[in-house]
Amino acid sequence: MPQYNPPLRDMQFVMHELLNVVDELKMLPGHEDIDADTINAVLEEGGKFAAEVLAPINLSGDAEGCTLDKASHEVTAPKGFKEAYKQYVEGGWPALSCDPTYGGQGLPHTVNQFFYEMLNSANQAWTMYPGLSHGAYEALHAHGTPEQKALYLPKLTSGEWTGTMCLTEPHCGTDLGLLRTKAEPQADGTYKITGAKIFISAGEHDLADNIVHLVLARLPDAPAG
Q1: Which of 63-69's residues contact partners 24+ apart within 8 Å by CB, and which partners?
Q2: Confidence label for 26 from pLDDT (cuts 50, 70 and 90)
Q3: Which of 7, 61, 120, 164 could be bridged to 125 by S-S, CB 3.0 to 4.6 A?
């Protein structure tokens, strides 16, 4: 069985002894009360989740992979992935660095990044699922309308819903300046999307009740490139 030993002492050394990260974080709005004990406790529990829940199912991501039901067009994640995601949600991990306004815990992104380093090390395939939700959350938090934020952010924060970022198209992968998908404003405030997207990470699965797809597209007046 695959094993993972979280490098907690290394992380604590880098954060507290090398970078004095607590003093730096205290200068940021909303993090005045952060302390080393809180950070250490979060990372210790996160390490347990990575080692005890994710590492044991790492092999199934490679050996089994996802399954597509061609009749229903539904995708089933590898064995153990759905159960692990349920534990991830029940532990409150999706909310770690999210805005308290929408149910988040409001911890620094630095702490969340150290947590995700352990998740990726223990089971990178599984971590792709909740990892994409962070991108969707941040985009909506920064640019969403009040109505969009009220609808989507609490669900993404709790983990009830997951998210994706639909970027790649058949003719362009990393060179997004070549994308052709269009977004045309409609009278009711919505957009008519035309185009094709492929290879969308976490684009379909059975881990959550709903998947929020954020689509990168060009407006009619968008500049070239």
Answers
A1: 66/205
A2: very high
A3: 61
Q: What count of other Cβ atoms lies within 10 Å of the Cβ of residue 138?
A: 16
Residues in the chain: 225
In a domain, 176, yes or no: no
Instruction: Please state the rounded mean pLDDT for residues 37-64.
Output: 96
**Domain CATH number, residue 64:** 1.10.540.10
2 pLDDT exceeds 90? no
Quote the number of domains for the chain: 1
Q: Provide the b/e sequence for 158-170 (b: ≥16 CB within 10 Å).
A: bbebbbbbbbbbe
Determine, yes or no, domain membership for 196: no
Q: Which domain holds residue 55?
A: 8-161
The token pair at 29 is 């709005």
Count of CA atoms in the C-beta half-sphere (13 A) of 72: 9
